Amino acid sequence: MMNGGAAETPRTFVKEVKRIVIKVGTAVVTRGDGRLALGRLGALCEQIKELNYQHYEVIVVTSGAVGLGRQRLKYRQLVNSSFADLQKPQDGLDGKACAAVGQNCIMALYDTLFSQLDVTSAQLLVTDSDFRDKEFRKQLKHTIESLMSLRVVPIINENDAVSTRRAPYEDSSGIFWDNDSLAALLALELNADLLVLLSDVEGLYSGPPSDPESKLIRTYIERVHLGGITFGDKSRLGRGGMTAKVKAAVMAAKAGVPVIITSGFDPESILKVLQGDDVGTLFHRDAHLWVKTKETGARDMAVAARECSRRLQALSSEDRKKILLDIANALEANEKVIKVENEADVAAAEQAGMEKSLIARLALKPGKARQCCITSLSKSLRVLASMEDPVGHVLKTTELADGLVLEKTSSPLGVLLIVFEARPDALVQIASLAIRSGNGLLLKGGKEARRSNAILHKVITDAIPDHVGRRLIGLVTSRDEIPDLLKLDDVIDLVIPRGSNKLVSTIKASTKIPVLGHADGVCHVYVDKSANMQTAKRIVVDAKVDYPAACNAMETLLVHKDLVSSGGLNELALELRNEGVVLHGGPRASEELSIPEPASLHHEYSSLACTVEIVDDVHAAINYIHGHGSAHTDCIISEDREVAETFLKQVDSAAVFHNASTRFCDGARFGLGAEVGISTSRIHARGPVGVEGLLTTRWLLRGSGQIVDGDKGVTYTHKDLTTV
């Protein structure tokens, strides 16, 4: 688990520091208008002069050249333009040209300032391609060592003017990708004792520094803070920002070089760091050994969720509704930062070579109505909020005896533990259903969606009022915590696993807590001999192609044997192939269509592929589905009502359709507002599980002093008052 911060740590190691790399960010070098921040640079140079005097070995990595060059070239462009030229749209300035001019400017400034302080500086320009050469790195190290032996301050910058990077200000490939990572790399190459990254804020915060709720993190602990930090916008002028600094800091710290991110606006920040003052944010390989983390145990998390859920249940229907509406508004207000975090997850998944079907689930792409995903999710929340309050609904009223009335009412289950795939939109749907149904919630999402889940969880819990408590919804960040949670059958009331057959089976075998869910989505479409072929082709293509990764997508196409001779089978196969679907065949279809057999007839492809098989009639189709299906969603396409009714009544699946795509099996499409998943269980809830599936019942008995006393003085009436 993660908490908001960590205890302060002694920084005694700084007493042993002799060689220090200082990286100066663009936001430190320049003012808000892009011009030089002479005061800050002067203070920086004075600190370096003091360190030089105290025999520290100081290496500076500086940013700011491109910004300064752009200022110069804009002025040059202006004075060289005629009045007529100024009326035309101005072309953007070439970044490499800006870098060339800016490098000259910034070094001239450093030279002037250091000369006034009787310090000599030297410039070294490097590129990513240079660092690929071992001999270059060896020579660079030798040169820097020689300079420092003469008390000269080396000032290093990436040579953007001649960089061969595809997009110098966006491309993050290569050995280093910006001056933060260059500084980290140099710190390792030069065996530095400390790396200081100067920024325009005091250090790393738990959220955007402008957010009053954000807290400064004094010591970064990966297991505590990873996934729990919401970054703001990137640098206003540079190409990195805090995200880049943290990435570089983690890399250097893991390799053994301590890192401190602190403010370059403080005229004594570097001196304070070397005095051991608790400034900025420390990254250290051994930090986890120093800090007593206040981690939330599994039981504490579950108990907190239960306590918050009881406070939620005590609210009026309107107050619970308002929470959902506030969350919908918060999602829309934070759409930009949510997209940034999600895009980072998607990029990481693509780089890791994840299957396209899994990446499709991971991406917060346009929703079912082709709206922006965040807009679509917010709309679903508002639909859910507008529905009749499901909590405390009187299901049945019975008069047991005169003056003794019994009510059966709907009630929340309590605390839900939901383990779900790397699908961030599921987090929002699940959380909204839990709130609407008055339940506490513990969530464990796929690790591939770590950043997306973290920001969505923060946005949602921040919208929950204090009198209910943000711990109503807990986010489990480590797979290692799941076994402990599964032991809490006295606190957690229902587990809903969403994912692979292996995941569901493992969870069922590991807990006494009731488990609700489905292991596979092996959905069938049976095309009867009486089917309208145009209708059949439309439904079959939609069921497979609309969203192949969905659990309600068609995985097996069953075709009546008469459609082989009539050409219907070939028509269906051609339609699917035209959509890029790879066909596999059962024993009969593989021979008829000359296609390979699948490894198993019970197979969920979750991609543009499916199994095709030929059956004798509707009864054979039903038997095939019972033998190889997963009791999820199955469909018949037929114009024969008697055959269709046979199929609808005898197929033992959670959802059975006639002349409609399997893709309709969805909580939103069923009008449930959202769904926590689709259950193939036969106890409690089956099919798309909306609010009703997260409720149980309670009995409320209202009397006027009655006692049992062997039933001597009670005349039971058992009169149904439900409709009265």
Automatic annotation (TrEMBL):
Q: Tell me the GO molecular function terms.
A: ATP binding; glutamate 5-kinase activity; glutamate-5-semialdehyde dehydrogenase activity
Question: Where is the organism placed in the taxonomic lineage, from the top?
Answer: Eukaryota, Viridiplantae, Streptophyta, Embryophyta, Tracheophyta
Family according to the record: In the C-terminal section; belongs to the gamma-glutamyl phosphate reductase family.
One biological process term from GO is: amino acid biosynthetic process
Q: Which domain of life is it from?
A: Eukaryota
Reaction catalysed by this chain? L-glutamate + ATP = L-glutamyl 5-phosphate + ADP; L-glutamate 5-semialdehyde + phosphate + NADP(+) = L-glutamyl 5-phosphate + NADPH + H(+)
Matching InterPro entries: AceGlu_kinase-like_sf, Ald_DH/histidinol_DH, Ald_DH_C, Ald_DH_N, Asp/Glu/Uridylate_kinase, G-glutamylP_reductase_CS, Glu/AcGlu_kinase, Glu_5kinase/COase_Synthase
Instruction: Write the protein's name.
Output: Delta-1-pyrroline-5-carboxylate synthase
Q: Which residues form the Aspartate/glutamate/uridylate kinase domain?
A: 18-263
Functional description taken from the UniProt entry: P5CS plays a key role in proline biosynthesis, leading to osmoregulation in plants.
Give the enzyme's EC designation.
2.7.2.11, 1.2.1.41
- Keyword terms, alphabetized: Amino-acid biosynthesis, ATP-binding, Kinase, Multifunctional enzyme, NADP, Nucleotide-binding, Oxidoreductase, Proline biosynthesis, Transferase
Stored Pfam families:
AA_kinase
Q: What pathway is this protein a component of?
A: Amino-acid biosynthesis; L-proline biosynthesis; L-glutamate 5-semialdehyde from L-glutamate: step 2/2; Amino-acid biosynthesis; L-proline biosynthesis; L-glutamate 5-semialdehyde from L-glutamate: step 1/2
Q: Which SUPFAM superfamilies match?
A: ALDH-like, Carbamate kinase-like
Q: Which HAMAP family match?
A: ProA (MF_00412), ProB (MF_00456)
Protein's UniProt keywords contain Amino-acid biosynthesis = yes
Gene Ontology CC terms, in alphabetical order = cytoplasm
Organism of origin is Linum tenue
